[in-house]
Amino acid sequence: MDYDLSPEHALLRDTIRAFMTEEVAPVVDEHEKARRFPREIVDRLGEMGWLGIPVAERWGGAGMDTLAYAIAIEEIGRVWGSLGLIVAAHTSLGCGPLVLAATDEQKERYLIPMASGKVIGGYGLTEPGAGSDAGGTRTTARLDDSDGCWVIDGGKRFITNAGQAGTYIVTARTGTTDKGEAEISAFIVPSDTPGFSVGRLEEKLGLHASATGELRFDGARVPAANMLGSKGDGFRTFLKILDGGRISIGALAVGLAQAALDASIPYAQTREQFGRPIGSFQGVAFLIADMATEIEAARQLVWKAAWLKDQGRDYALAAAEAKLFASEVSSRATNAGIQVHGGYGYVEEYKVERYLRDAKLTEIGEGTSQVQRLVIARRILGLRVV
Ligand SMILES: Cc1cc2nc3c(=O)[nH]c(=O)nc-3n(C[C@H](O)[C@H](O)[C@H](O)COP(=O)(O)OP(=O)(O)OC[C@H]3O[C@@H](n4cnc5c(N)ncnc54)[C@H](O)[C@@H]3O)c2cc1C
Known about the structure:
Elements: H1 7-34, H2 39-47, H3 66-79, H4 81-101, H5 104-115, E1 121-124, E2 140-144, E3 149-160, E4 167-176, E5 182-190, E6 196-201, E7 212-223, E8 227-228, H6 234-270, E9 272-273, E10 276-277, H7 282-310, H8 316-341, H9 343-346, H10 352-359, H11 369-381
Parallel strand pairs: 1-4
Antiparallel strand pairs: 2-3, 3-7, 4-5, 5-8, 6-7, 9-10
Helix pairs in contact: 1-3, 3-4, 3-6, 3-7, 4-5, 4-6, 6-7, 6-8, 6-10, 7-8, 8-10, 8-11
Bound molecules: flavin-adenine dinucleotide.
Flavin-adenine dinucleotide (FAD) binds at residues 89, 93, 123-126, 131-132, 158-160, 204, 207, 212, 361, 364-368, 370-371, 374.
């Protein structure tokens, strides 16, 4: 075993950390307050090659591995949760399905612009009636024999990068399987597709600078060539995509938790009550000890899942464990961060309140904590746990 990062991984971490601290941190508050999508910063990330870190160079990416990607998301999330989610959704959910299932022609046309940072990606799976039960998709796609186009009708909800993405990967019912279940296929939908529009954008608890919104399909027509993978493969593809996406949400959770710890340590060392630093009271010091311990454990789980994926090994269980643990650690640690700061933690000036608001999403997106427990329990018990 080797717990040291490789020189390439350490360099990437240090470069992103410096960029985020020096160039991005100063503009976070203004974007969060205005709930403004940071288009200029996202474009800069693209120029640096950080919008396609785990995508092969041939397809416009940086050609690095999943561990590098997890490190990047942690470092981005440590400074700005919204930006971490934007990049994670773009990379795991936008580029990921194309890496997994696209033809070379589709990769040429859609993946290269996305992985090289020229076009933002989004992923539409969730619907009003299909959240944890993503198989309950009601959006339909039917083949129009007259021109060979797929005609999509329905809508998606809570889609990250809605209104900002140039390319969306969406799932739709294309029929019924032999078992009577919904046959789900995936489609590449460019944002200028006739019949496609972006609906309401959500006002959220946190992650204010990231866009979350509705996608609408009113007879949206995409060419037959925009089906991703084979007809009926959409469900399998998205399950695989979510396995990978969980690593990045775990990494985002670790970044937010680390940010809370980074703020809490100097505060506990310098804030005095009863004539001594509050960090010298066990009640405060132990909060910090627990934060540090849990964050390190969460990071190791995330990195282990990334490592397994990079080895080409089965990583689904490890990714679910990492996401479950890291997201719950993130909520606990960011909450403890506020406690360490007392009343100052509750006001916006000290930033730690933002970390808690942002961290909560990591327990919900890409499968709630309950869904992760189902995935883990089913794998371990080999039973259909419901
Ligand atoms: C900010 C944000 C960004 C998002 N980005 C995207 C995106 O880019 N693309 C996308 O497709 N979706 C996205 N989502 C949607 C997200 O993945 C869903 O919200 C999530 O999967 C939960 O679905 P739901 O909200 O319908 O909750 P529900 O499924 O209705 O769950 C409600 C509660 O019931 C519990 N529950 C449900 N089923 C079970 C069960 N079988 N056993 C035990 N408990 C259960 C859940 O754990 C939860 O506590 C985003 C959501 C948010 C808030």
